[in-house]
Automatic annotation (TrEMBL):
Signal peptide: none annotated. Pathway: Purine metabolism. The lineage of its organism: Bacteria, Pseudomonadati, Bacteroidota, Bacteroidia, Bacteroidales. It comes from the Bacteria. This is Bifunctional (P)ppGpp synthetase/guanosine-3',5'-bis(Diphosphate) 3'-pyrophosphohydrolase. InterPro entries: ACT-like_dom_sf, ACT_dom, Beta-grasp_dom_sf, HD/PDEase_dom, HD_domain, NT_sf, RelA/Spo_fam, RelA_SpoT. Belongs to the relA/spoT family. Residues 61-161 form the HD domain.
Amino acid sequence: MDDEQKKREEADNILINDAFQHLIDTYSASRHRKKVDIITKAFNFARQAHKGVRRLSGEPYIMHPIAVAQIACEEVGLGSTSICAALLHDVVEDTDFTTEDIENIFGAKVAQIVDGLTKISGGIFGDQASAQAENFKKLLLTMSDDIRVILIKICDRLHNMRTLASQAANKQYKIAGETLYIYAPLANRLGLNRIKTELENLSFRYEHPDEYLRIEEKLASTQASRHTLFDQFTAPIEKVLKSQGVEYVIKERVKSPYSIWNKMQRKHVTFEEIYDILAVRIVFTPKERDNEINECFNIYVAISKLYNIHPNRLRDWLNHPKANGYQALHVTLMSKQGKWIEVQIRSDRMDEIAEQGFAAHWKYKEGGEIEFTEDENELNEWLHTIKEILDDPQPDAMDFLDAIKLNLFASEIFVFTPKGEIKTMPAGSTALDFAFSIHTFLGSHCIGAKVNHKLVPLSHKLQSGDQVEILTSKAQHVQPSWINFVSTAKAKAKIQAILRRDGRQIQKQGEEVLMSFLKANDIEYSNTVAGVLAAFHDIDKRDDFFQALGEKTILLGESDVNELKGKKKRKKVPNLQSWKKYVPFLGNSKSGKDIGEERQLFVVPDKFNRKKPIYITDDNITQYKFMHCCHPIPGDDVLGFIDNKKQVEIHKRSCPVAAKLKSGYGNRILDAKWDMHKKLFFDATIQIRGIDRIGLLNEVTQVISRQLNVNIHKVNIVCDNEIFTGVVDLRVHDREDMKKIINNLKKVDGVQEAVQIM
């Protein structure tokens, strides 16, 4: 061994030993039983198993399991069983050791958790869509046996996100997309607020680096004014709390960059127009633990005498906590500076549960080591719902993920049964959702409901406080249209399962049609053949293709044989409309007349390097499909997606469709970059609102056409009681043009808002 190698090994050993010592120090300072020996044994075992292996970042591989264990211990508050499982979580996956070896050395519990983590390795997803769904099902099934599996998986994902810089850009989009689509909502559902926020911010940072930096800079530049507002606002509150003898801490909570950006996109507002960037958190230690809810209300009464209260912004999660265990009282007050400020009142116990989730519940119970056997009704009910979906899951990966996400994201409402029992439902639930939540039979035979003793249809949306009675008929059957007005995962899953059962007979007939056709043309059947024909007829799923054949909405012919035997000819694009199906831009003249007659789409070859970015230029732009779901133009953060025909779709990275693609088909994601030189024009639409006056429309068109030399395609302005709303269709080169136009329009007297819309 040469000197250079020795030095590197010594440096590695110091790094590893320091990280492990930090873990032991953190664990020893916690309330858990002091099982340092078993943790040390797990560390030594994992260190030996991963010896000589390095991560992409260059550091020894063992640093990753130590970091995951550190997060599990310090940030989630888990005990020795979880710490051992975290240290060992990659051993079975990456080395020759088996789950049986782990069980023999560390016991059945650690082995069960490691086994659960091994089954869902490599993110949720493998290479194929079906494997992705299967892995996610395994994750959820294992989670319902022992919640620690998903808690450690979230810790694992957090460390991977913290070290994402070493990955290629297409991998970054895949991992960040999965994180936003699945892991952040899971963390939120389990009450891990701090981790959820960090996962969202890290995903945002890698997907939209420029936007992230811009918001970080704005937060830094407005920090001093926020501090001043916070000090002035809280000074009278501190005075009154001290006079009442309350033991408290007042914290300044600043909205995260991702939350700010999300709100800017959702509400079409600028950073300066977001009023709730600052919130105030009062965390108190109750004099009596049993009386903490009353003490919350006492603080609320005291501060409501100091400031005016927003009448519609009182949120009481004390008596009915959120499904993830969150408890607090939120009130919005008008400060003396004329700004609304939200105040969150919670006890130290509630605060810890808000940040650390369900794991923190056990700190306030007797005993040391956390055991997940307590009867946590909300969590158990949620896991029960997940199990029900798993009993009859959708065959398609993305449908399955969508069903689960409905349960992860929804905020809650409280409704009552006819007997007065309270039931928690996701916001937006309908009477039919409520029927399925009680029993599948009730849902499938539901004909209507009585809400607060009034007759309503199945599609009626429920509100908090409604009392609901379901009406049924044995003659009723599940209708395909029902899927459009249910919003809960359980109802959607059950309706789809029943419809699938009804549709299987037709699909079977479709399969028989296909088999006869292939046999007549001397072609052997395979899933690939069915997939190629489905794609040829613009159908995404094989089952839908069989259904169409069975219903005779598709008739197979000579063109299908040519497609399978590779004899198809390249199609000419007959006119502007069909050419523009995937091309939301015009030629290099404003009239858009010099578009080429023939368009050849780029087909990704088998040995294509997916780690390298594709560059979209003025010359090759016609080779890619620009999707109408998000209407990307130069300057947008975009990515490429290899579709079933091996052609490349271009999406905005923030597009909802792209979010599903990143999560479900991550191996098909490409990094895409613009290399445009203002030759082509792209369609764009701006919405303007403001106070009407004589000559306003003329001034708006002057700004766009004369000052900026931009071609206006169409203008539509509606005025109602001196307030106008206008939509302007333009042709621009890129995002930079759009920003310039919007900024100039905002300077026009009377224009209050100017935003780009799809």
